[in-house]
Design goal:
Chain lengths: 166, 668
């Protein structure tokens, strides 16, 4: 990829923001009319602890070039400690992704409090530039290796193992 | 008609997409027509419309008409944040006999039009968010909110004027109130003041009747010298533990006669008197001030020799005819059930030592405004006399505004009350001493009923006003007139020159700050705070006394600097909100709880240990976990951890989120 292409590359970044701190902070950034790069699209979850690592894998597989996760500061979680759970999973996931050949810089976890609209702006801008420098994540060969989509494969397998229905 | 009521189980979902212009808030940056055209091409979308203001009545009717006519059975509104108008649109769904949870918002205002400078990019981002909402809504299922009864008792934390007013309002409405105060008496900062601005009415005369009303009210349980130790539960059903520190005097026996205080082996004060902000000293056994409520003595374990060294003549015990003194008193934990909580924990004043160039603590005749409040108070340490350390009356006094306020090095915000109290102190000092008074101000901020008039009055009283921030206060004399004086050096921005004003006494008008323990307190109640540490309201304009934790409300200066009228008004508002919650009798809980799909559960118990609310129990016979919906608060941590995908969360199922991810990426 030439430098010119890289400059014109618009990364697609999926963000998962917790309802109570980071999503509210993003709302605050809006109310305060802080402008930032349009590359990040936010999905609201109630708590960063809800983030199943498969959501991140799914986002990359669907074509995201980066994934941003936002939660409450340590000690501030609306559900006591969901953000710590998120942190634990994040660390493991990051190692897993790098083993798959996905650069560590494509995934980021940030603690952003409800009052930190400016931090939303800063983090989104930084993340966009960081991913832009890395260039697009081309997972095409990998996604072709996957079998056709079947819903709840994992759950079905368990049920079958237990001799259950469906 | 019937098709609009519930989605048909076999038929294809019919999604309506409604894009809001929000005047020009959205339409100014997003090409609304283009997004509507795009939405119309998405799978399962049967109707795509736009309207100026979707939240208005005609906007809601647009949705309701389509629902009633059976054109749509699920609704996506692309407008503002769901935190803003999700409840509005859910109500609109209910009014059209549709299930309110067959609804999803795409936030194209706060997350798009207000933050994206480029029109093309804003339109593309809006499309992506709409596609995501459409992708997930086809998987939404009708849900019911669960109703939980509300405990009719309330807890008020903090016994300053805000807490007192809130407690009395709730108690007068017939609710049982627990009022918890960490100091030995209620009254807060207001009890320390002599006069209140702008009316100059006596602070004690308007406050103490309210304090005794609290004491005598049959519906109020007053716990002073106490702190909240822990809070559990949720809106309508909080379980609160209150730690009652030992005061070594039995509250039910003490009548506040002062005999014990007089009899103490220490004939003079030995410790800094907190109530007089250190201007005087008190004995180890004391009553904070004569109108203290409850009027009960308290023994300070730090200075009492009996408690510290277990050897004292215990003259206080002999002096107390009622036998109220009890050195064996222990800390007590009280446990109460309440439906609503009002936090009114107040503020602390800025520590003037932090600005060393103003010389506080270095030069004897530099006081903080709170010290001068005590000095001008007739019941204060000087009996209302304003004098210097040598006992003489000051002939010139400088009042320095904005100490610790409006300065990026300390606090960037305006503390709101200092201009007015500085004017009040200028008036009182001039009245008591006849001194020449100089006010050094940056801007005179007097918005409030009768406030500007008060400023006008001070101008006529020949108080001097110098516009400019004070650079330095020192005793460095350069001319004979400055000898033995404090020299205030400031730029006079109206004259355009640097001035040196020699004065006998300086008053530093210190700003307001959150308490040192504000962070611990807010964590106990699970609420957020601003950058500065003030408790964060749910919405600055539309929910100023609510917090992000349902059932917890804010009153007074813990939310931000406030004067007495504003604190009282906010306390009344908080009490009204708490009453509205309690009197409804029940709360409806968001149905975003977790549930177990039994056939998929492998019985690994991963979820059981993860739940912070002990909402998941394990059935040994069936070898499966199950979620207690009443205890589950809907964080979804267990769902993310379930290795077999058996746990799911209503409104946030794996499938819904996976579809949302597909939607947000794939269609644009």
């Amino acid at each position: 990829m030439s430098d010119n292409d890289r400059n014109h590359f618009e990364p697609r970044i999926v963000a998962f923001f917790c309802n109570w701190c980071t999503y509210t902070a993003a709302d605050l950034a809006g109310t305060a009319r802080m402008t930032y790069s349009p590359n990040v699209r936010v999905i609201r979850i109630m708590c960063s602890g809800r983030l199943d690592p498969q959501f991140v894998l799914k986002a990359f597989r669907e074509g995201a070039d980066g994934v941003l996760i936002g939660g409450c500061h340590p000690g501030d979680c609306h559900y006591q400690e969901g953000n710590y759970k998120a942190l634990r999973r994040f660390k493991l996931l990051k190692r897993f992704l790098s083993q798959m050949g996905i650069e560590e810089e494509r995934i980021r976890l940030e603690w952003i409090a409800a009052s930190e609209g400016d931090k939303v702006q800063k983090v989104i801008n930084q993340m966009t530039e960081q991913v832009r420098k890395l260039g697009p994540l081309n997972l095409e060969p990998i996604s072709q290796m996957h079998p056709p989509k079947e819903k709840n494969v994992k759950a079905k397998a368990v049920a079958m193992a237990k001799g259950g229905a469906s | 008609m019937s098709t609009a009521k519930t989605p048909s189980s076999n038929g294809k979902p019919k999604v309506g997409v409604y894009v809001c212009h929000c005047g020009i808030n959205i339409a100014g940056k997003v090409n609304v027509q283009e997004t509507v055209d795009f939405a119309g091409t998405l799978p399962n979308v049967t109707v795509a419309r736009e309207y100026k203001f979707m939240c208005s009545d005609p906007g809601q009717e647009l949705i309701q008409k389509d629902l009633r006519e059976g054109l749509v059975d699920r609704v996506v509104v692309a407008s503002c944040s769901p935190l803003m108008h999700e409840p509005t649109f859910r109500r609109a769904m209910i009014a059209a006999d549709a299930n309110p949870f067959l609804f999803q918002m795409a936030n194209i205002r706060e997350h798009v039009s207000w933050v994206t400078p480029d029109k093309g990019a804003a339109t593309e981002k809006s499309k992506a968010l709409i596609a995501a909402a459409v992708a997930r809504i086809v998987l939404h299922k009708p849900l019911e909110k669960t109703r939980v009864p509300v405990n009719s008792n309330a807890l008020v934390v903090g016994g300053g004027i805000a807490g007192i007013h809130a407690a009395l309002t709730l108690a007068d409405a017939g609710r049982k109130v627990y009022l918890v105060e960490k100091e030995p008496t209620i009254g807060g900062h207001m009890a320390k003041f002599d006069k209140t601005f702008p009316t100059l009415d006596c602070s004690a005369c308007i406050l103490t009747p309210k304090m005794s009303a609290v004491r005598s009210h049959p519906n109020i349980t007053l716990w002073t010298y106490s702190e909240v130790a822990g809070v559990e539960g949720f809106v309508g059903n909080f379980n609160v533990k209150v730690r009652r520190k030992p005061r070594y005097v039995k509250e039910d026996l003490c009548v506040g006669c002062y005999e014990c205080v007089e009899a103490c082996v220490f004939k003079k004060g030995v410790t800094k008197d907190e109530f007089n902000v250190g201007l005087s000293k008190r004995r180890p056994i004391y009553i904070p001030f004569p109108q203290a409520t409850p009027l009960v003595a308290v023994i300070d374990p730090e200075s009492c020799v009996q408690i510290k060294r277990n050897k004292c003549k215990k003259t206080c015990v002999d002096a107390c005819e009622r036998g109220a003194i009890d050195f064996d008193q222990k800390e007590e934990i009280k446990e109460v059930e309440v439906g609503a909580i009002i936090l009114a924990t107040g503020f602390k004043t800025f520590d003037a030592r932090r600005i060393s160039r103003y010389g506080y603590g270095k030069y004897p005749n530099i006081y903080t405004s709170l010290e001068v409040e005590r000095m001008v108070n007739a019941a204060g340490p000087t009996g209302g006399e304003v004098h210097l350390k040598n006992g003489e009356k000051p002939r010139t006094v400088g009042i320095v505004h904005c100490v610790g306020s409006r300065d990026s090095r300390t606090n960037a915000y305006c503390s709101r009350v200092c201009c007015m109290y500085s004017l009040k102190l200028a008036h009182l000092i001039k009245e008591r001493t006849g001194a020449e008074v100089y006010n050094f101000y940056i801007d005179m901020r007097t918005p409030g009923k009768g406030y500007e008039e008060f400023y006008e009055k001070l101008l006529k009283e020949n108080v001097h006003f110098i516009r400019g921030r004070v650079a330095e206060i020192s005793d460095w004399a350069t001319i004979p007139e400055e000898e033995g004086k404090l020299v205030i050096r400031a730029e006079d921005t109206l004259v355009g020159a640097v001035r040196r004003i020699p004065v006998d006494m300086v008053v530093l008008s210190v700003g307001l700050e959150p308490h040192d323990d504000a962070d611990d307190v807010r964590r106990k109640f699970n609420i957020s705070c601003s950058h500065e540490g003030w408790f964060l309201e749910r919405h600055p304009k539309l929910a100023p006394v609510s917090t992000f934790t349902d059932g917890v409300f804010l009153a007074g200066a813990c939310q931000g600097p406030k004067d007495i009228p504003d604190s009282v008004a906010q306390a009344g508002a908080a009490a009204a909100e708490a009453l509205a919650l309690i009197d409804k009798g029940y709360v409806e809980l968001e149905p975003n709880t977790a549930y177990v799909q039994e056939e998929f559960c492998s019985g690994c118990k991963t979820c059981v240990a993860l739940c912070p609310y002990s909402a998941i129990s394990f059935n040994v016979e069936k070898n499966i976990s199950s979620v207690n919906g009443a205890l589950c608060k809907g964080c979804g941590t267990c769902v993310a951890a379930c290795p077999s995908g058996a746990l799911q969360q209503n409104l946030f199922t794996d499938e819904q989120i996976l579809h949302e991810i597909e939607g947000v990426i794939s269609y644009v």
